[in-house]
Amino acid sequence: MSEADKFLYRDSGKVANPLDQADWATKKLVWIPSETLGFVAGSVKEEKGEECVVELADTGKKVTVNKDDIQKMNPPKFSKVEDMAELTCLNEASVLHNLKDRYYSGLIYTYSGLFCVVINPYKYLPIYSENIIEMYKGKKRHEMPPHIYAITDNAYRSMMQDREDQSILCTGESGAGKTENTKKVIQYLAHVASSFKSKKDQVSERTYLRCVKLSVQHLRFRPKRVLRDISNDCIVKQIK
């Protein structure tokens, strides 16, 4: 496994551990609210009408919780799942746990249906090189691990094949990484479009470079703006 692969692929061997699966089924593991941690794992020991006695997984302490506050835990095979739409139990606790688990493993990109959730690592990751771009170029989304390149390639291919404008919306709070991911979108488009050889569909190099230059300037002076539209005649088009 290369250095970049560590930040792209989850450990599938650990996910498929049959012992973890059996342990999950036996203990009736669930999520319960925590004032300090948001949610913590526990095992249902007893049911009393509208309440349950839950033993906390970390401390062994037993607490009484209202059934309405309990959220089901997914089987271990869904640990660090790449697309949260696949979760059997789709609830707040499971979504947050999956994102946290992936983030602490260096996996900052996670799909949620049509969306790609990104958590800012606040450090350099070796997953934005030309070699990584080549890995994602022309691949279907399900063939590769989650990445902003996969989203961009899908938009680019749809634009070239369907001859229709495509949109990529980067949204989030301040410091979430919107500007950096927008730069990666432009980087990917610049690399892929420059290697596109079809004379019929090839974009004018002068027009293309001008558009990319304008986009970079736009990012430099207006970092909070969002890349919203990718058009045929001007690969990157900024819309206010």
TrEMBL record:
Q: Which GO cellular component terms, listed alphabetically, does the Swiss-Prot or TrEMBL entry include?
A: cytoplasm; membrane; myosin complex
Which SMART domains does the record match to this protein? MYSc (SM00242)
Recorded GO terms, molecular function?
actin filament binding; ATP binding; calmodulin binding; microfilament motor activity
Myosin N-terminal SH3-like domain location is 25-75
Keyword tags: Actin-binding, ATP-binding, Calmodulin-binding, Coiled coil, Motor protein, Myosin, Nucleotide-binding
Gene Ontology biological process terms from the UniProt entry: actin filament organization
The record lists ATP as bound by 172-179
Q: Which spans are transmembrane here? A: none
Quote any Pfam family the record assigns: Myosin_N
ATP-binding as a keyword of this entry, yes or no, is yes
Which PROSITE patterns does this UniProt record tie to the protein?
Answer: MYOSIN_MOTOR (PS51456), SH3_LIKE (PS51844)
Tell me the ranges covered by the Myosin motor domain, including all copies: 79-240
Family the entry assigns: Belongs to the TRAFAC class myosin-kinesin ATPase superfamily. Myosin family.
This protein is called what?
Myosin, heavy chain 9a, non-muscle
